[in-house]
Design goal:
The complex is a heterodimer of chains A (289) and B (270). Chain A has 289 residues and is mainly α. Chain A is 80% helix and 0% strand. In chain A, helix 2 packs parallel to helix 7 and helix 11 packs across helix 12. Chain A is globular and about 50 Å long. Chain A starts with a helix and ends in an 11-residue tail after the last helix. With 270 residues, chain B is an alpha/beta fold. Classes of the chains: A mainly alpha (289), B alpha/beta (270). Chains A and B meet through helix 8, helix 9, helix 12 and helix 13 of A and helix 1, strand 5 and helix 2 of B.
């Protein structure tokens, strides 16, 4: 039994995939806390789809997909951030148009010109096949950058997430904090796309944060829990993916969803109240006179 | 009329015009705030009270005019409770500690910071609530948490947006007494309020605002029928009770008909 469980560790691609999935889970878990609490779940979902367009274009042009999709993702993230900060009526619709058009462009490019290099299915649904050392390095770098940002700017990020108007008065450059968060979100999506797939990344961002929220009322504890839960789901999901012969993205998400259901059941009314609150972020500071 | 502060000036708005998009909310507003003052800004909905606070706080750019602040002026802002996300996972201690956002880079509080948070919570009588979630508090305790966060930054000027919005009489008294104590200790306070009798009439200085400053001075000088009608565009009467102005809504119901005709069931069926 144990031998069977440990057997895939003998394959380099699996070891790489396991490292990437664990780090991806932890990264998405941590970033997901900010995404969920800022009510940006839809943006995370949209941005992952937008990056797919860059992935397809870079594949078509034969350039490194991390570079091509990275630039594409960065531009998309900053555009979305600009639209969101303007708080214009219908910004959700604008984001929807930008991101789904980018996703559709990616699908069209693949349909017209086929793929070279990276797998179409892997980009959509995640796969451990083809996870190389460069993917491990990429996600490690993004993890370190995100970790440093969260550690060094923890207070400013918390203040900006909780109360942006007062944070602004207190001297926090909230525009820069929002932009940094979007850039890190784009980097996280880019680095985890291979294992999780663009269609499932949103779940990896949202579920660990939602589970953590049900377990605590403290922001610091929520951040720690979501990071740990994400890492465990990535690790367990990747192992299950191998043994069940199911793509890695769906398996990781299903493990997280199962954990969500279990915690939802165990925490009872308290957990339900906290989970419900996630879906109801604070009203934006009104442009009241 | 614009009252000149009789103490060291903390900031001054001079001919400020600003708004959202093309819509001007404040037009040619001039206002000076001195050290240790306690000022209430009153006016109807949409008069520009919150915008004025945002201009004072520096979180809103002005289209015309200028805002001058004393060098290194420390300000703190307490938002309307309606804008707070009470479901956000944050304890009282975490919330108050946000005031030290420009302190050390490490996420966790230093021993000094923990002591300072404990001291300010004690000062506001909520010392035993540090580890509670902000939603688990009463209305008065919640307001105190955000005042505590403001005070931890050791401000010279405290800005509060509608601190008594939607609270009952007892809580309003509690908040007013607390602010009065803080002002007596030297803290300058500017608050916006819609409560003319419960708050504004008790303050040493009232600014009547409706896009521009209609009146500025002591309550008995400013809360007059003429100024209030020009500010609110509605009929208002002012009485004096115990030396304090009491604003009475001038609205009168039409007198009842001397012989009201009551429709009977039989008439209704015809």
């Amino acid at each position: 039994m144990i031998d069977e469980l440990l057997r895939p560790l003998g394959f380099e691609f699996f070891r790489n995939g396991l490292m990437v999935a664990t780090m991806a889970g932890a990264l998405c878990g941590a970033i997901g806390v900010y995404v969920v609490l800022k009510g940006m779940s839809y943006i995370g979902h949209g941005l992952s789809h937008a990056i797919f367009g860059g992935f397809a274009a870079s594949s078509l042009l034969g350039i490194n997909y991390l570079l091509g999709a990275g630039v594409w993702g960065l531009v998309s993230a900053l555009m979305i951030n600009a639209v969101t900060r303007r708080r214009v009526l219908g910004s959700d619709a604008a984001i929807g148009v930008i991101t789904t058009a980018s996703f559709a462009l990616g699908l069209a490019l693949f349909a017209l010109f086929g793929t070279s290099g990276r797998s179409f299915d892997a980009a959509l649904f995640g796969s451990i096949l083809g996870v190389g050392v460069d993917d491990v390095v990429a996600i490690f770098v993004v993890c370190v950058l995100a970790g440093v940002l969260i550690f060094v700017r923890y207070r400013a990020l918390l203040f900006t997430t909780f109360d942006p108007e007062v944070a602004d008065v207190a001297g926090v450059n909230t525009a820069r904090m929002d932009a940094l968060l979007m850039v890190v979100l784009a980097g996280s999506i880019l680095a985890t796309m291979q294992v999780l797939g663009v269609t499932l990344i949103a779940a990896a961002l949202v579920i660990p944060a939602a589970v953590a929220r049900m377990l605590t009322n403290s922001f610091a504890r929520m951040l720690q829990l979501a990071t740990g839960i994400g890492a465990v789901c990535g690790f367990v999901g990747m192992n299950l993916s191998y043994h069940l012969d199911v793509q890695s993205g769906p398996t990781i998400v299903l493990v997280a969803a199962t954990l969500f259901a279990a915690v939802f059941a165990v925490t009872g009314a308290t957990g339900r109240r906290r989970a419900a609150a996630i879906a109801a972020p604070a009203p934006l500071p009104a442009r009241t006179a | 009329m614009t009252a000149a502060p009789d103490r060291d000036e903390l900031l001054a708005l001079s001919g400020v015009t600003c708004g959202y998009g093309r819509e001007a909310v404040l037009v040619d507003v001039s206002l000076a705030i001195g050290g240790g003052e306690f000022v209430g800004i009153v006016g109807p909905s949409g008069a520009g009270k919150t915008t004025a606070l945002r201009v004072i706080a520096g979180s809103m750019r002005v289209a015309r005019g200028s805002v001058t602040r004393r060098a290194a002026l420390r300000m703190a802002y307490v938002p309307q409770v309606e804008t707070i996300n009470w479901s956000f996972p944050v304890t009282v201690r975490e919330c108050v500690l946000m005031a030290r956002v420009n302190g050390r880079r490490l996420p966790w509080a230093s021993r000094d910071e923990r002591a300072q948070v404990a001291a300010v919570l004690e000062q506001l009588d909520i010392g035993d609530l540090a580890d509670r979630h902000i939603r688990e508090l009463s209305g008065g305790q919640q307001q105190r948490v955000f005042i505590a966060r403001a005070l931890l930054g050791e401000p010279e000027l405290l800005l509060m947006d509608e601190p008594t919005s939607g609270v009952d009489v007892r809580l309003r008294h509690e908040i007013l007494h607390l602010l009065d104590d803080l002002n007596a200790a030297g803290l300058a306070i500017v608050l916006s309020t819609h409560d003319l009798n419960g708050i504004a009439a008790h303050l040493p200085r009232v600014v009547c605002l409706n896009r521009s400053v209609i009146g500025d001075g002591a309550p008995h000088d400013v809360l007059t029928t003429d100024v209030l009608e020009r500010t609110y565009g509605a009929s208002m009467e002012v009485l004096v009770h115990g030396g304090m102005p009491v604003v009475v809504d001038g609205f009168r119901r039409h007198p009842p008909h001397p012989h009201p005709h009551v429709h009977t069931h039989a008439e209704a069926q015809q």
